[in-house]
Amino acid sequence: METVLKVKVIPKSSKKEIVCDGIGGIKVKVNVPPIEGKANKACIELLAQYFKIPKSKIEIIGGTKSRNKIVRFFDIENDKMQKINDFLKSKKKKGDTI
Hints:
Layout: E1 2-10, E2 17-20, E3 26-29, H1 38-51, E4 58-62, E5 68-74, H2 78-89
Parallel strand pairs: 1-3
Antiparallel strand pairs: 1-5, 2-3, 4-5
C-alpha cells in the first residue's frame, strides 16, 4: 500500500518534533540546517521513527529544495498504513504535538 502526505519542514528548530498544522497536514521540526539534504534526511528519519516504518519506505517526491514537501510512504503493511490514515483523519488542533 502507499500514501502521500503534505509536510512542511522547519529546519534549525530547537527540538525535533512533529506538529499538527490545523488543516490536515503536519510540520516536521528538525534541528539541522537545510544544507546538502540534511533537513530532508532528518525529516525522513523522524517520520520513520514516529510511524514505525523503515526509512527505505519513505521518500520525498516533491519539494526537495523547499520547506513544503510531498512525502510518499510505499510498500507499507496494513497496520502501519492504518496509523498514517488515522493521523490524516484526526482533527487535531493547530500546534498539537503528535
